[in-house]
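Chapter review: from sequence to fold.
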Amino acid sequence: MSTPLIEPAIVPDVFVTGNAPTTVMGDNLRLTLFVAQRSTMDNSPENIVVARIVGSRADMLQIAAAIVRSCDTARTDASGTEVANAFLEFLDAPKGRH
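The token string follows.
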């Protein structure tokens, strides 16, 4: 049985279209997520920061693996499975490798 998720306050979903370069902060990583849009001033493209996620390298890799697994279940071609398997092999590698 997995640990239950408890949401004591409503946590809104955040829609994103991209991410800025990941920031390394010691043993932690910060992922800055944004939404691409057009400026209301001059209609030029801009990226609006909507969330920042900070976590340990190990936790961020586990989150990335969960995303890869979820994407893999939506694909029907072999390439999706190959990508997911390669990523999961990377996670199982010795700690020094990542």
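Two observations follow directly from the output. The radius of gyration is 17 Å. The chain has one domain: 18-97.
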